[in-house]
Amino acid sequence: MSRGDMAKPLLGHRGTEGEGSPTPPAGRTVGVLGSGDFARSLAVRLVCSGFRVVVGSRNPKRKASLFPSAAEVTFQAEAVKKADVIFVAIFREHYSTLCDLADVLVGKILVDVSNNTEINHHKESNAEYLASLFPACTVVKGFNVVSAWTLQSGARDGNKQVLICSNNQEAKRIVAEIAQVMGFTPVDMGCMSSACEIENIPLRLLPAWKIPIFLALGLFLCFFTYNLIRQVIHPYIREQKNKLYKIPIEVVNTTLPCVSYVMLSLVYLPGVLAACSQLYYGTKYRRFPDWLDQWLQHRKQIGLLSFFCAALHAVYSLCLPMRRSHRYLLIETAVKQAVEKKMTIWVEEEVWRMEIYISVGIIALGLLSLLAITSLPSIANSLNWREFSFIQSSLGFIALVISSLHTLTYGWSRAFDENQYKFYLPPTYTLTLLVPCTVIIAKVIFSLPCIRHRLLRIRRGWEKGRYVKFVLPSATGEFSSGETSSNV
Ligand code: NAP
């Protein structure tokens, strides 16, 4: 089976998942070896899905009360005799204790649900090991990616995919059918050699998030240090003023939008680099370097982290007036004003700046929320490709432009005020503008008709050097253009 087929369910959907699932194959008795957490949840779910369940335990009397009354709890050998499909819900270390059952297990389908404690812990996968212990059985790997909790919570919650692999197509079909009746979506992962990959899946901790999280943390650390120097260390060294109180909220709140804004531009920068590469080489059939490929694949996570930082920035900003320091400074200003007998401190320009700054910020956050929501698989699946690309590409770019306006209105004329250059360091917002402005300028250049046309042709398969352009006068005397292969 090809890699692309793996994501397809083995069986077509016959009705909706959960309550509307197809009825179980008549008279199927399913065996479960083991009486632990997984075995119990599995038995409950199988019973609820209409199967007859027989549980094999080393100590059935003691364990029977833990199972639903509809499930029969008996000794392992008895259970194995009564079912053709047997879920082996015990740990790999204990597989060898099942060797006494070898005779009764002949011809049965064993479903290996086990996981390891470390990635690639053993030379061979648990399922291959089980198959080597019981060569007269057919082993199917599956159900290890769902937890006991998911099994109990039913089809309404948790992960619904069950990855399945086996060297025997018929056994795989039967197990897939059971999974579907239970309300899961079986996903064919091919033959038994995929078992190792399937067993590693539950052990991976957010594999797609590692790079984006490190990127966000790296950016946060850089901007935080930069802001700390400007807002806390500089006043302490130059004026002996203790501004340490600014660290928990003010410094963090000036750092978060920087990270969010730069991360948002990093969602669109790889697209720009990819377009540059395609324009330079005049083809879309040349592979991008690995780092660019990786970057392109992580755009969704980078975008979601950008939204996360923006949302935190919004909450921090709303809380700014709640701080004691803010109240003291406000009262201090009022007292000073009274002493100086100033009637008003209204600065028209500042008022406008702030109104625009906040309004634009709210719009940017709204657009980012829309991007984040539509990137969720359940929402994304309900959109067609045009709608999805319009939101993620066009609205995303608008969000970047509006975020830039938000940043510019925040900075206003500070970049031209020499007092803002603490230790000769420019205001932070000027640094954050670098990448986003590059992306915006590049996007504007790419939208110029001559470049846009060339890029579109490349993306439709045109290649530089493989075709020559010719211009012929038409019968009417007008000129028409066409393309022909240079080889011809
Ligand atoms: P557990 O609670 O420790 O249960 C293991 C069961 O194995 C015991 O209740 C025991 O039942 C049986 N067993 C058979 N021979 C044994 C022996 N020689 N020594 C000890 N126990 C023996 O473990 P579990 O959480 O249910 O996990 C069972 C399997 O499911 C594991 O392979 C695990 O990787 C897999 N799994 C679990 C989860 C989960 O969420 N828990 C998720 C995915 C996969 P008897 O005493 O009745 O024989």
Instruction: Report the helical percentage.
Output: 40-55%
Bound ligands, named by name, code or SMILES: NADP nicotinamide-adenine-dinucleotide phosphate
What would you call the quaternary organization?
A: single chain
So how many helices? 19
Overall shape: elongated
Taking all Cα atoms into account, the compactness measure Rg is: 32 Å
Provide the low-confidence segments as ranges.
Answer: 1-23, 470-488
Strand order of the largest sheet: 3-2-1-4-5-6
Query: What distance separates the N and C termini?
Result: 39 Å
Order of helices and strands: EHEHEHEHEHEHEHEHHHHHHHHHHHHEE
Number of strand elements: 10
Please give the largest β-sheet. Answer: 6 strands, parallel
Question: What's the gist of this structure?
Answer:
With 488 residues, this protein is of the alpha/beta class. The protein has 19 helices and 10 strands. Helix 9 (210-239) packs parallel to helix 12 (299-319) and helix 14 packs antiparallel against helix 16.
Describe the structure.
A six-stranded parallel sheet has the order 3-2-1-4-5-6, with helices on both faces. A two-stranded parallel sheet has the order 7-8. By secondary structure, it is of the alpha/beta class. Helix 10 packs parallel to helix 18. Helix content is 53%, strand content 10%. It is elongated. Bound molecules: NADP nicotinamide-adenine-dinucleotide phosphate. Residues 34-39, 57-59, 63, 89-91, 94, 97, 113-115, 144, 147-148 line the site of NADP nicotinamide-adenine-dinucleotide phosphate. Belongs to the STEAP family. Its cofactor is heme b; FAD. This is STEA3 Metalloreductase.
